[in-house]
Automatic annotation (TrEMBL):
This is Potassium transporter Trk. Residues 136-218 form the RCK C-terminal domain. GO terms for biological process: potassium ion transport. It comes from Aneurinibacillus danicus. One of its GO terms (molecular function) is monoatomic cation transmembrane transporter activity. Residues 3-119 form the RCK N-terminal domain. InterPro entries: NAD(P)-bd_dom_sf, RCK_C, RCK_C_sf, RCK_N, Trk_Ktr_HKT_K-transport. It holds the Pfam family TrkA_C.
């Protein structure tokens, strides 16, 4: 299968981070912004960096936007520009559009005008940080749906030297430990008898309510 090509429109903090990561991972990525300075900052970090106003249909055609497999709309503050850009991309036949939303209403509109996926980076980061504040053992949290998530939880004193079966994790909390990270090693199918050690990190999947109980009580 041929490697995918990406275009990122809007080179603020979020768009810039997406461009950098894709480029480092070796993908073709075109960086687009209406602001020439922002474009110049990305000349090295992207395969192409071009100045264009994405609310101008002809400008989008000129940069060949239809040739990219995935286009990311990373315009945040200017909600009108973000919506109009998404609509134009859809009309121009872009196969997959991922758009960043400022708030739930903005997200709803983006889906209506044709986004295939809407991301809420500020909201998601807020949730991740809040989990860590409530329980410092929680190193990270990713929402899978409004009800389910994956948490990265550092082994607490209470868990050290015990096995998953002894801790009775599944029956007591209804969550599943799907992997254990020890230093840089990953045990991706941990048996029930594996003894947990100081410094180990558990990757736990479950309902948010159950995860919260696990985080608080463990
Ligand atoms: P962040 O919160 O991720 O920093 P911003 O909303 O501050 O995002 O940045 C969005 C970027 O999108 C800015 O660099 C801005 O110049 C660019 N941008 C805004 N409107 C357009 C447009 N119509 N066409 C192209 N780029 C745009």
């Amino acid at each position: 299968m041929a490697e995918k090509s990406y275009a990122v429109i809007g080179l603020g903090r979020f768009g810039s981070s997406v461009v950098n990561h894709l480029h480092k991972a070796g993908y073709e990525v075109m960086a687009v912004d209406e602001n020439e300075e922002r474009v110049q900052e990305h000349v090295e970090a992207a395969t192409h960096a071009v100045q264009a106003d994405s609310t101008d249909e002809q400008a989008l055609r000129d940069v060949g936007i239809g040739n990219f497999d995935v286009v990311v709309v990373a315009i945040g503050v200017d909600i009108q520009a973000s919506i109009l850009t998404t609509l134009l991309l859809k009309e121009l036949g872009v196969k997959r559009i991922v758009a960043k939303a400022q708030n739930p209403r903005h997200g709803q509109v983006l889906y209506k005008v044709g986004a295939d996926r809407v991301v809420f980076p500020e909201r998601d980061m807020g949730i991740r940080v809040a989990h860590n504040l409530v329980s410092p053992n929680v190193l990270d949290f990713i929402e899978l749906s409004p009800d389910y998530g994956v948490a990265e939880v550092a082994v607490s004193e209470k868990m050290q030297g015990k096995s998953l079966v002894e801790l009775n994790v599944r029956a007591q909390f209804g969550v599943n430990v799907v992997a254990i990270k020890t230093n840089n090693d990953f045990n991706i199918a941990p048996g029930p008898e594996v003894l947990l050690q100081e410094g180990d990190i558990l990757i736990v999947v479950g309902h948010n309510d159950d995860l919260r109980r696990f985080e608080e009580e463990m």
